[in-house]
Amino acid sequence: xxxxxxxxxxxxxxxxxxxxxxxxxxxxxxxxxxxxxxxxxxxxxxxxxxxxxxxxxxxxxxxxxxxxxxxxxxxxxxxxxxxxxxxxxxxxxxxxxxxxxxxxxxxxxxxxxxxxxxxxxxxxxxxxxxxxxxxxxxxxxxxxxxxxxxxxxxxxxxxxxxxxxxxxxxxxxxxxxxxxxxxxxxxxxxxxxxxxxxxxxxxxxxxxxxxxxxxxxxxxxxxxxxxxxxxxxxxxxxxxxxxxxxxxxxxxxxxxxxxxxxxxxxxxxxxxxxxxxxxxxxxxxxxxxxxxxxxxxxxxxxxxxxxxxxxxxxxxxxxxxxxxxxxxxxxxxxxxxxxxxxxxxxx
Length: 347
Hints:
Blueprint: E1 3-6, H1 15-29, E2 36-38, E3 50-51, E4 61-66, H2 72-77, E5 83-88, H3 103-115, E6 122-125, H4 128-136, E7 142-144, H5 160-166, E8 171-176, H6 185-199, E9 203-208, H7 215-228, E10 233-237, H8 241-250, E11 253-256, H9 265-272, E12 277-280, H10 283-289, E13 294-296, H11 301-312, H12 316-329, H13 334-344
Parallel strand pairs: 1-2, 1-4, 2-3, 4-5, 5-6, 6-7, 8-9, 8-11, 9-10, 11-12, 12-13
């Protein structure tokens, strides 16, 4: 049996790329032949994918990962296969990029999603939030399955230099994810500004994530930090996996103000690595956390900063959140999740 995957890109530090690679690994462990194909020039992780030009017409099943505009959509539409499955990871609404060039890419991505509507035998998505979006666009054959994440990766050793540098008497706040308008890092900075100046001066904020894709928004964040004259705000850019683990290890609270995040993998990471989560209440975040973490329904800066303080300084509130997060993240263990994919793929 052969099940191939097509994805618009494969790059380091990208949650969807890691899902694609891990799905291939699990498929191969069940004696399935599985290749990954990406457009020319999008194979940042060398040796793990093939170029479109090397594609051979499939005879079995093919999975297309949809999350951005790409020539891969047209390529997928022209293929013949026994079964064509789309995994829809969400496309950020273009209104978040009204002042940025990437708005065009979001618009194209949504047009390509509509274009593929009648070409798929099944569309899998990880959250009901995205399934509702698909139904609004007229998709009928949809299925919600939990995300497939290799949680075992997070048991690796963290970067020792960062552990030594930041394990001290400071409270560290963390957000991990692409520097992007939909992730609302400016709201996180505003909360930290109040927390750092009014609640606890011995504090830091780490915004860990790639910013090269949104340079205009990155400059806006730097200008905000300068305007507010805040110390101890670190916008790291892309980091290694060992460094990512270290930032989780030294952090006391994970704070997300994101208003649209297709995967919310970082919330799962934080729960697994025992960092209390505070997240703005939007569809996917609410589904990921369930009764775990703390969801906030408005962005009141003072109340959020006080909640950060309660969870950062220990005590019963923190322990209760961690207990619920540990129970919740168990449901995302890949050994529980992968059998769902096996059933769908008839393995």
